[in-house]
């Protein structure tokens, strides 16, 4: 069995007529890929080809060395993956469903590359798109879309994660025509090699969260790589220190005036993280299926054993349910009716099912499931980071619970 099959008959006639359809992933059991338009399917096929030919051969090595393949950034930009949702810089008009599917395609091969794109395109560029002035958008977004400028997003702190709405300790103090930032940030993706970091800090004058474009060569700014991770090893997470960093007023993002504005940026990306989780589940499942078809025990492939087939069927069920949920959530984003609880449920559900799926995939491989060469171990490890970032399962469940009951139970 191959990892791709012919396009599912559920693909829309319009999508099929507009451009040659990309081969459907075998893990796409219900043919959801057919919901993409023709141009979107063609773009998805280009991304899949790039990930298979350029990323898969090097992914394990960079993961093992805890290095990021920075040489791939120009190609990611050429594929239109940086700023795909920003009208001013995107390569073609596309949907949130397409962007979610692309997150799946990236994470299916390498969650580290998917995370880089999510940070650059979703969080850093998203913050400029949502909160930047027209002048800031005109200067920063094109440069970030080409990869000339690498961005990062500084929200999480050593003592503030899930409670960022209230618990930010990094401060910003206005002094004439500039601001002075002081504090710490942690787990900042791209942080060790970014050119600019969107830093969220609390204004000491009014207590509101504001956003700043902080150049990483600013005096008082230091970024230190977080070492010894067991998950997303290729992602360059940093501890950042801001020791009275001076930021000009024209580097403040005027559209970010409170945490409510920050939440708007996070809302743009949370559903994409759910799609990333599906991609990790798909990658682990595909590796487990390929292994099961060639590994023999008791005189036949283990894929012919009932218990292995049961695990594979469970994996497909989780993947299918997660795609269906995320597809609807992304479609609601396209329609402008998605609310926080919708993206929260998608992220909570998809990451929980991902965690189950990678566990079952590793189980199919037995002891071989914990070494990189058989294709499951990296997904198994990376799933743990995806499970936690962009809102833990617990916090997203409480967002959904608030919508269901009308009662807030965060504290």
Write the layout of secondary structure elements.
Elements: E1 4-5, H1 13-18, E2 24-25, H2 38-65, H3 73-78, H4 96-109, H5 111-131, H6 134-145, E3 151-154, H7 164-167, E4 171-175, E5 178-188, E6 196-203, E7 209-215, E8 221-225, E9 238-248, E10 252-253, H8 259-294, E11 296-297, E12 300-301, H9 306-335, H10 340-365, H11 377-388, H12 393-405
Parallel strand pairs: 3-6, 4-6
Antiparallel strand pairs: 1-2, 4-5, 5-9, 6-7, 7-10, 8-9, 11-12
CA-CA gap between termini: 51 Å
Mean pLDDT, nearest integer?
A: 92
| Mass-distribution shape | globular
Radius of gyration: 21 Å
Extract low-pLDDT stretches.
1-19
CATH superfamily annotation of the largest domain: Butyryl-CoA Dehydrogenase, subunit A, domain 3
Keywords: FAD, Flavoprotein, Oxidoreductase
Protein name: Glutaryl-CoA dehydrogenase
Family: Belongs to the acyl-CoA dehydrogenase family.
EC number: 1.3.8.6
What do you see in this structure?
With 411 residues, the chain is of the alpha+beta class. It has three domains: 4-145, Butyryl-Coa Dehydrogenase, subunit A, domain 1, CATH 1.10.540; 151-258, Butyryl-CoA Dehydrogenase, subunit A, domain 2 (Beta Barrel), CATH 2.40.110; 260-405, Butyryl-CoA Dehydrogenase, subunit A, domain 3, CATH 1.20.140.10. It is built from twelve helices and twelve strands. It has helices at residues 13-18, 38-65, 73-78, 96-109, 111-131, 134-145, 164-167, 259-294, 306-335, 340-365, 377-388, 393-405, and strands at 4-5, 24-25, 151-154, 171-175, 178-188, 196-203, 209-215, 221-225, 238-248, 252-253, 296-297, 300-301. Residues 1-20 are annotated as: Disordered. Its cofactor is FAD.
């Amino acid at each position: 069995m191959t990892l791709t099959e012919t396009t599912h008959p559920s693909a829309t006639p319009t999508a099929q007529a507009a451009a040659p359809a990309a081969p459907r992933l075998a893990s796409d059991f219900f043919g959801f890929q057919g919901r993409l338009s023709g141009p979107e399917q063609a773009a998805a096929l280009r991304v899949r080809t790039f990930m298979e030919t350029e990323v898969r051969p090097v992914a394990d090595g960079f993961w093992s060395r805890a290095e990021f393949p920075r040489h791939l950034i120009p190609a990611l930009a050429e594929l239109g993956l940086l700023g795909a949702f920003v009208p001013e810089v995107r390569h073609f008009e596309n949907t949130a469903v397409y962007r979610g599917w692309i997150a799946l395609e990236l994470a299916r091969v390498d969650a580290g590359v998917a995370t880089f794109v999510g940070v650059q395109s979703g969080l850093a560029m998203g913050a400029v798109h949502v909160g930047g002035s027209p002048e800031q958008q005109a200067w920063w977004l094109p440069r970030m879309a080409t990869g000339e400028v690498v961005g990062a997003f500084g929200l999480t702190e050593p003592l503030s994660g899930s409670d960022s709405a209230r618990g930010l300790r990094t401060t910003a103090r206005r002094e004439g025509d500039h601001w002075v930032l002081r504090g710490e940030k942690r787990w900042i993706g791209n942080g060790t090699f970014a050119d600019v970091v969107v830093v969220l800090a609390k204004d000491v004058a009014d207590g509101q969260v504001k956003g700043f474009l902080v150049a990483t060569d600013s005096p008082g700014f230091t970024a230190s790589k977080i070492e010894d991770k067991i998950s997303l090893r290729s992602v360059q997470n940093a501890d950042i220190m801001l020791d009275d960093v001076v930021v000009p007023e024209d580097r403040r993002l005027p559209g970010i005036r409170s945490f409510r504005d920050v939440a708007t940026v996070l809302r743009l990306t949370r559903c994409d993280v759910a799609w990333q989780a599906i991609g990790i589940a798909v990658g682990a499942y595909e590796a487990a299926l390929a292994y099961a078809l060639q590994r023999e025990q008791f005189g036949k492939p283990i894929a012919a054993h009932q218990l292995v087939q049961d695990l594979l069927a469970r994996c497909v069920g989780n993947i299918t349910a997660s795609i269906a949920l995320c597809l609807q959530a992304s479609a609601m984003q396209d329609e402008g009716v998605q609310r926080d609880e919708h993206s929260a449920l998608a992220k909570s559900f998809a990451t929980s099912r991902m965690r189950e799926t990678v566990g079952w995939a590793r189980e199919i491989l037995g002891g071989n499931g914990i070494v990189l060469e058989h294709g499951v171990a990296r997904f198994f490890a990376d799933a743990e980071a995806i499970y936690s970032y962009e809102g833990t399962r617990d916090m997203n469940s409480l967002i959904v619970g608030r919508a269901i009951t009308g009662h807030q139970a965060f504290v």
